[in-house]
């Protein structure tokens, strides 16, 4: 033990050892020892003894001893580290592209577990599911003009939209462009400015957003194809389109005026349609009445003509009789509602003619006379 006195003393490192085995400390007091145990009491474990035992066990485990086994341990650690770096996993929504000395291989790693010769070969992982690129966010202090565009009718609009895309060619996406995301951002904003600049602001706000989105998608796809970006544009939805905050109130007033105009036009169209329907109904009624009157007149004329022909045929057979009959029928029709009395001179003078009976109004009694007089025959 390091504190034991090899000369036969029992003192500690500060001396003070004396006969009789009394091991005392520097202040004349022995070191504290753990209590309990048998014999002369439990001694604290020796550090050197523990180290020596650990070395013995390590020699038994490592072949070639401790000195030769260190290289084996280091080698195993290096092999494990190399295996971890050489084996990689591709998820179902990803594709891997292996590079050998920085040059990409032709084959693309599909989902699953793969192995490559690290560090000679490297691997780049690309996500191939649909991704979203936001363009034209609200203006901030760092970028006050974000999303502001000039429309075809010289109005300033703030447009927020997104680009939904997928990676169709992982190799082209990784190596043909330095920063595909930034390039897509700039191309999308440029395409939207181009389309909005050819249209009035009203189309961007509500009237024709779908057509604008389709045109912007086609322009972005064509530009990215020319760059060989390996990106397929799925859709370009316009999330929000509004005037700048500085002129929002005036623009809303214009919008309300336009809505009032649309309402007035709609009411005028309804009134015009109502009046037009009534006029068409009246014209149809007049035409129907005219057609009915026409048919009536034609039928009456045809009937009169037919009657005249039939009378003429009878007249041709017996002219005198027919002439006399026509005369009598005509005079009967003429004198039917007349109060006149016609006397034929050839018949002579009638001794008594009751003129008061002839001129009496219909509905009066035959025996009553005006003024209480009654008509009597005789004297």
From TrEMBL:
Q: Give the record's family classification.
A: Belongs to the band 7/mec-2 family. HflK subfamily.
Composition bias type Gly residues, residue spans = 7-23
Q: Pfam families per the record?
A: Band_7 (PF01145)
GO MF entries:
peptidase activity
Identify the keywords attached in UniProt to this record, alphabetized. Coiled coil, Hydrolase, Membrane, Protease, Transmembrane, Transmembrane helix
* Annotated organism of origin: Rhizobium glycinendophyticum
Annotated Band domain residues: 85-255
Give the UniProt entry's GO cellular component terms: membrane
Residue stretches of biased makeup (Low complexity): 24-34
Question: Self-association or partners: how does it assemble?
Answer: HflC and HflK may interact to form a multimeric complex.
Coiled-coil segments: 247-274
What kind of membrane protein is this, topologically?
Answer: Single-pass membrane protein
Role played: HflC and HflK could encode or regulate a protease.
Q: Which SUPFAM superfamilies match?
A: Band 7/SPFH domain
Under the heading SMART domains, the entry gives: PHB (SM00244)
Protein name (record): Protein HflK
User: What gene makes this protein?
Assistant: hflK
Q: Where is the composition biased (Polar residues)?
A: 359-373
| Protein's GO biological process | proteolysis
Region called Disordered, residue ranges:
1-49, 359-379
């Amino acid at each position: 033990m390091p504190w034991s006195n090899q000369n036969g003393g029992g003192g500690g490192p500060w001396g003070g050892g004396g006969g009789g085995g009394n091991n005392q400390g520097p202040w004349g007091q022995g070191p504290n020892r753990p209590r309990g145990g048998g014999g002369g009491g439990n001694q604290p474990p020796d550090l050197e003894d523990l180290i020596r035992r650990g070395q013995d066990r390590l020699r038994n485990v490592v072949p070639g001893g401790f000195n030769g086994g260190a290289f084996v341990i280091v080698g195993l650690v290096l092999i494990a580290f190399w295996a971890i770096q050489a084996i990689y996993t591709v998820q179902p929504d990803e594709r891997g592209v292996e590079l050998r000395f920085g040059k990409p291989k032709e084959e693309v790693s599909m989902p699953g577990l793969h192995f490559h010769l690290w560090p000679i070969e490297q691997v780049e992982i690309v996500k191939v599911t649909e991704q979203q690129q936001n363009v034209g966010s609200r203006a901030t202090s760092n970028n006050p003009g974000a999303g502001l565009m000039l429309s075809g009718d010289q109005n300033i609009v703030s447009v927020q939209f997104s680009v939904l895309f997928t990676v169709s060619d992982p190799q082209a996406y990784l190596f043909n462009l330095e920063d595909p995301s930034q390039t897509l951002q700039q191309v999308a904003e440029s395409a939207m400015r181009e389309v909005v600049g050819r249209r009035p602001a009203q189309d961007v706000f509500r009237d024709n957003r779908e057509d604008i989105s389709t045109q912007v998608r086609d322009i972005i796809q064509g530009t990215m194809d020319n760059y060989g970006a390996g990106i397929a544009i799925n859709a370009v939805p316009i999330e929000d389109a509004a005037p700048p905050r500085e002129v929002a109130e005036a623009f809303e007033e214009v919008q309300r005026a336009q809505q009032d105009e649309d309402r007035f036009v709609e009411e005028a169209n309804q009134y015009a349609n109502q009046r037009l329907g009534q006029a068409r109904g009246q014209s149809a009624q007049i035409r129907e009445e005219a057609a009915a009157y026409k048919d009536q007149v034609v039928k009456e004329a045809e009937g009169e003509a037919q009657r005249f022909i039939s009378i003429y045929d009878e007249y041709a057979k017996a002219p005198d009789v027919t002439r006399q009959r026509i005369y009598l029928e005509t005079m009967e029709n003429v004198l039917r509602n007349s109060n006149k009395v016609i006397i034929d001179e050839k018949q002579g003078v009638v001794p008594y003619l009751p003129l008061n009976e002839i001129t009496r109004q219909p509905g009066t009694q035959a025996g009553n006379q005006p003024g209480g007089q009654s008509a009597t025959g005789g004297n």
